[in-house]
Structures are given as C-alpha cells and as structure tokens.
Design goal:
Blueprint (H helix, E strand, L loop, with lengths): L2 E10 L8 H10 L12 E5 L11 H4 L3 E3 L5 E3 L7 H6 L7 H4 L3 E3 L1 H6 L11 E3 L36 H7 L8 E5 L8 H5 L5 E3 L6 E3 L9 H5 L5 E4 L4 E4 L4 H4 L6 H5 L5 E9 L3 H5 L6 H8 E2 L4 H9 L4 H8 L2 H8 L4 E2 L10 E4 L3 H4 L2 E2 L2 E2 L17 H8 L4 H23 L4 H10 L4 H12 L3 H4 L7 H7 L3 H9 L11
Parallel strand pairs: 1-15
Antiparallel strand pairs: 1-12, 2-7, 3-4, 5-6, 8-9, 10-11, 12-13, 14-15, 16-17
C-alpha cells in the first residue's frame, strides 16, 4: 500500500447556471497577460456541444490520454518510441490556435477619437496576436446556450454512441435540452501530460497531488498539450512555455479555496482531500471501459482505516491533511453516496475532479403538471428523458449506463423524500419504496440535501490549514527565527485559514 494525499473536487451540475463567473475570476487572476489571452484555465461549456478547444473529446483525432493494450498495460496514445523524436518537431495531432480561437480586442481609440461626421464610428476587431483586422468566427464560449444549433450540438462526439431514434429525439424541437459543463484541469492521479513531457518539466506535487509546470525546465516541446485528453495545458506564444491551471495552490497553502471555487455563484463546487493508493493505479486503469468508474473508486482509500492512515503517515502525509480527508465533502459525494463521477474515465488518467450528473433534464419533462411515469413508476423520465442516459454515460460513466442511472435514482429519491416532508402530497409507502429501490437511507437523504441545498463555505471547502510556512520555519536555525520575530513576524508560525 502506497497511500498519498490529493486535493480533489466535485462539481454539482444541477446547480450550475452557466454564468461564467468562475471563468472570469480565473482569467483576471492568472491569464490576463500577453501570450495567455486565448487561455481559459476554467471554462464553461454547453453540452451537447463541441466545447473548447473545438471537439476536444475526439481522441481519434487528438490522441490524448492512455490506451489499453491487449496485454492490459497502458501506453500513451500521443507518442511512442518509434515516433517520439519526429513528434518533437512536428506533431500532427497538436491543436492549433484555430482550434481554440484567435484572441481579439477592438480599435477603441478610433471609436473614441473619430472626428464628427454623418456616420456612426465603429470599433473594429483586431487580433491580439498579429494586430491585424480579423473576422471573428469562434471564441471560448462560442456555442454557449446554442445546443439546438446543428453546427455545435449535432457535432458533439458523444452523440455518436446514441441510436438513431434517441439522436432524433434530441433534435425534434427547435432547441435541444442542454446542460452546462464547467471544466478545469483535473490534476489527474495518472496524468498523461506528465508522462509525455520530454524535458521533465511537468510534475505532480507530493504533498497535495497538484500537477504543475516548472517554467525553468520547460522547453516548449508541447508534448504535454497533445497528451492531455482534456486539453487543459496551453502554450504561451509570448514566452515559449507551457502553462496550465495550478489549482490556485498559493491560496490552498493558506487554507483558502481556489479563486473559481470562491467566486462560484451557484455554489456548485466542493473541494477537499482524498487519499489514494498509488500502487493500485496501473491495475485499475488497465481494466475494460465498462468497469473503469468502479476501478477508480477502488483506488481511493478510506481515511478512517488505520492501515490507510499508517501508510499515509509513512509517506509523509501530515496530520492536518489526514484530518481534512476524514471530513472531505469529496469523499462523501464520490464514495459514501456514489453520486459524483469522473469525466471521461476512459481516458485512463484517473481524474481527480468529479461531477454530480444533472437531474434537471431528466425530471424537467412533464405531462399535465405531473412528472411523466417510467421505469416501474418509481423513477420518472429516466428512460424517456430528452437528454438520453447513454449521452450522460458517455460523459461520466465510460459508457456504463447503470453507473449514471444509479446516481440519478439517488438524486430523484432525495427530491421525493424532501417533497413528501414539505408538501405531504405523496404516499409515505411510495416514498419508502422509492428510497429502497435507490438504495438510500433517510439519514443519507438528509445529509445529501444539507450538503447540496444549503451548504456553508466550511461544508464545501474542507482544506488543511497553513502548513508550508510551518515546514519552512521548523528547519530554521534559532537565530533566524529570532531575527524574523524582530521584524514583527512571530517566531512560531500561526495556524489557521
């Protein structure tokens, strides 16, 4: 057993309103500078849709992530021993700026300083890269709320797995039902970007599992960009270096939530510590697609198990991290309740960002004021939903419909349980049968409701307090500590958020 700590996250998609506040918070803090204009470390996509960069999920083209060989071993899809040297200089699957978008600004000076005349002055768009006039045809959220468009929704690669009648059902009216999918770097436990980097610039931090790029070591080969299946590593054309989401580790190191988490209007984001067994990763990620979600769950370790705690301590995991892991909201959503699922587990990177699938498109279909009955009259709309379960399974279940269905049944059972309490309009025996079929106890339903509907920041963000400064201070000589204290800095570092 080789237990390590990981800062992990859960996004509850039923609560995402697609406001992009998270994206703007991240952009203002990290990528508002030359060379990073086109980067959105956090972005919110409309699904079905093509996403950002365009069709990033099409791994037949981009060849990101890992592939399972016949032997059960894993190998990078983007590169191998035979073509590694050639692809250092030319990588045919490398996304170009046209796959993202060419960042632009406007000729505001012309607008403000134009002389008086009979026509209305116009601020024309100009490229922030070349300075030339451009015709804008794409952007980071270009297909926002356009899931009924044949240009975007019908080109969603996940729709290819649907039978013709379900695909037609999605587009039978003017606009298809949609959902929002916020994305950041998953800070995977088995990151293909780290494995592909020829200069060793990418690494996974031992204390919290955050994947970072050492700017001093990066040589701009961009193999990491091709290898990341989620396309969350970017190339800074100004500095010639790769960049990516750093999970706001300067904030985490002081016990604060990440900027995008802190700014989230819908309160959809949860963050905490997970413990995982690194020795199980290779075997788990070598399993067939259908069982990958369960295999990933098998890599995670119970933070209350004495053997797990002992292994974690041997690896240097601090007591503060262990205490946070025992109270982690991520563990509750992922393991206790099994509501949160990984995005595209079939990429086999073992992502540490999990999603609670949206229930609204399932229960949003009504007939004469009542939810349409289906699935043995206990779980309305699961089989006839306008957003097919097979589509959600492609996103969150590696194609396994039952994994997604089980999560949605629990979410529906919680709604019926709380509705019966509030309105008293449902037969208690019926509610009890729904709870039984969803494999949910009343205590669990109450806990899910409390953490979903009325969570406090302390419930959503369970992070270790300041530690890095304490570790540094513990290695200081007494004279240095005394000197620091003389400048008004306490000799003994303080704990707290």
């Amino acid at each position: 057993m080789n237990v390590r700590a990981q800062i992990a996250s859960v996004f509850h998609l039923d609560k995402c309103i697609g406001c992009h506040t998270c994206s703007i918070a991240c952009k203002n803090v990290w990528t508002d500078r030359p060379g990073a204009e086109y980067m959105w470390w956090n972005n919110v996509e409309t699904k079905p849709g093509t996403g950002y960069p365009t069709l990033w999920e099409d791994q037949e083209h981009y060849k990101g992530g890992w592939q399972r060989l016949k032997s059960g071993k894993l190998a990078l899809r983007s590169v191998n021993k035979a073509n590694a040297l050639f692809k250092l200089f030319y990588h045919p699957e490398q996304p170009g700026m046209e796959d993202y978008y060419e960042p632009w600004t406007y000729t505001y000076a012309h607008l403000f300083n134009a002389p008086a005349g009979d026509d209305q002055p116009t601020a024309m768009p100009v490229s922030q890269v070349t300075g030339e006039y451009i015709d804008i045809k794409a952007g980071p959220n270009w297909d926002d709320d356009l899931s009924g468009s044949p240009i975007y929704a019908e080109n969603d690669i996940n729709l290819n797995s649907l039978p013709p009648h379900e695909r037609e059902q999605l587009f039978e009216i003017e606009r298809v039902v949609m959902m929002y999918l916020p994305r950041i770097c998953n800070h995977c436990a088995n990151p293909s970007c780290v494995a592909a980097c020829p200069s060793g610039a990418l690494y996974k931090r031992g204390e919290d599992g955050i994947v970072l790029v050492n700017q001093d070591e990066c040589r701009g080969w961009r193999a990491c960009i091709a290898a990341c299946p989620y396309k969350k590593v970017y190339y800074n054309w100004q500095t010639g270096k790769s960049e990516k989401c750093i999970l706001c580790y300067p904030r985490l190191e002081t016990g604060q939530a990440q900027a995008c988490f802190h700014a989230c209007v819908g309160r959809i984001r949860y963050t905490g510590v997970l413990l995982y067994d690194a020795d199980r990763i290779e075997e788990a990620m070598g399993r067939p697609d259908r069982v990958l979600v369960e295999a990933q769950r098998g890599v995670l370790c119970d933070p209350n198990d004495p053997a797990v705690l002992a292994s974690a301590r041997r690896n240097g995991v601090s007591e503060e991290y262990l205490a946070s892991a025992q109270k982690s909201p991520v563990w509750r959503y992922v393991m206790d309740w099994k509501l949160a699922l990984p995005l595209h587990a079939e990429y086999r990177t073992l992502p540490m960002l999990y999603y609670v699938p949206p229930l609204l498109p399932i229960m949003g279909k009504v007939d004469a004021g009542a939810f349409e009955a289906a699935d043995d009259n206990f779980f309305p709309g699961l089989e006839s939903a306008r957003l097919p379960l097979r589509y959600l399974a492609c996103l969150f279940g590696a194609g396994n419909v039952e994994i997604v269905k089980d999560a949605l049944k629990k979410l529906m059972a919680v709604r019926y349980y709380k509705r019966a309490q509030s309105l008293n309009d449902l037969d208690p025996a019926l509610v009890g049968e729904i709870m039984r079929k969803a494999n949910l106890m009343p205590e669990e339903a109450e806990a899910i409701y409390m953490l979903t509907a009325i969570p406090t920041p302390e419930d959503r963000y369970v992070l270790p307090p300041i530690q890095r400064e304490e570790a540094i201070a513990s290695t200081m000589e007494p004279e240095v500590k005394k000197g620091i204290a003389g400048f008004g800095v306490p000799a003994e570092p303080r704990r707290g958020a």
